[in-house]
Design a protein that fits this description.
- The protein is an alpha/beta fold.
- The protein has a single domain (3-18, 71-239), classed as HAD superfamily/HAD-like (Rossmann fold, 3-Layer(aba) Sandwich), CATH 3.40.50.
- The chain is 39% helix and 16% strand.
- It has ten helices and eight strands.
- It has a six-stranded parallel β-sheet with strand order 3-2-1-6-7-8. Strands 4-5 form a two-stranded antiparallel ribbon.
- β4 and β5 form a beta hairpin.
- The radius of gyration is 18 Å and the shape is globular.
- The termini are close together.
- Keywords: Hydrolase, Magnesium, Metal-binding.
- Pfam families: Put_Phosphatase.
């Protein structure tokens, strides 16, 4: 009997967007208008690539970026929740599916000593070039019209579950914890016995309730959370059952 916990990262594990937080490293802590206005919908990764070039051009080094990123606060109750999952790893497999990048997530989880809680992290690959610039790539290619072109979280979740089945691992329940519009696609993939946990007041919750109003509700149960303590209470009930 094992449960799979799927976490988004920005505004779910951490209480900010890691990609916009890095702007604190920029001169005067802001980006020039031309760069800010260069974002095109669905092409966030390319936009962040330009932001990283700008930071590199302005002499922002890896250690400064790391210092800045590790000051991001965790969401209310999240430290307790991750501690609880870490103590019960025999019952929970735990993955992150995020549109952030490997460098940011790695820094933040390791600084707080939570990297061992997660079995796998699926996010855009990032690395520092020989000249010290941070570069980021698309996570994968996909054919989903609903998702940004670099990442379809449904595809990631489906492939992970298929791979686990091949290894002989199936889950009693999948619990999906997220906040954003790009979390709707994987939530619509969840089955009747699974649970979606959208963060209260964020896009995912609004989109799920819009679907219910248009009479095409999601198949899974929906439990809204405002603090990660709500999530922990639910998981404690799950293990008791």
């Amino acid at each position: 009997m094992k449960f799979l916990l799927v976490f988004d990262f920005d505004h779910t594990i951490i209480d900010e967007n890691s990609d916009t937080w890095i702007v604190k490293c920029a001169p005067e802590r802001k980006l020039p208008n031309g760069l800010r206005n260069s974002y095109q919908p669905g092409h966030w990764t390319e936009y962040m690539g330009r932001v990283f070039v700008y930071l590199g051009d302005n002499g922002v080094k890896e250690d400064e970026m790391k210092r800045t990123m590790t000051t991001i606060p965790f969401t209310a109750g999240m430290v307790d929740l991750l501690g609880f999952i870490g103590e019960n790893k025999q019952l929970f497999d735990c993955i992150i599916v995020s549109d952030s990048n490997t460098v940011f997530i790695d820094w933040i989880l390791k600084a707080a000593d939570f990297h061992k809680v997660f079995d796998e992290v699926f996010t855009n690959p990032a690395a520092f070039s020989s000249t010290g610039y941070l570069t980021v790539q698309h996570f994968h290619a996909h054919h989903c019209a609903k998702c940004p072109k670099n990442l379809c979280k449904r595809k990631v979740l489906k492939e992970f579950l298929d791979k686990q089945l091949e290894r002989g691992v199936s889950y009693t329940q999948v619990v999906y914890i997220g906040d954003g519009g790009n979390d709707l696609c994987p939530v619509m993939f969840l089955k009747k016995n699974d649970v979606a946990m959208p963060r209260q007041g964020y896009t995912l919750e609004k989109k799920i309730s819009q679907l219910a109003q248009s009479l095409s509700p999601v198949q899974c149960s929906v439990l809204v959370w405002s603090s990660a303590i709500n999530i922990m209470s639910y998981l404690k009930l799950l293990i008791k059952e």
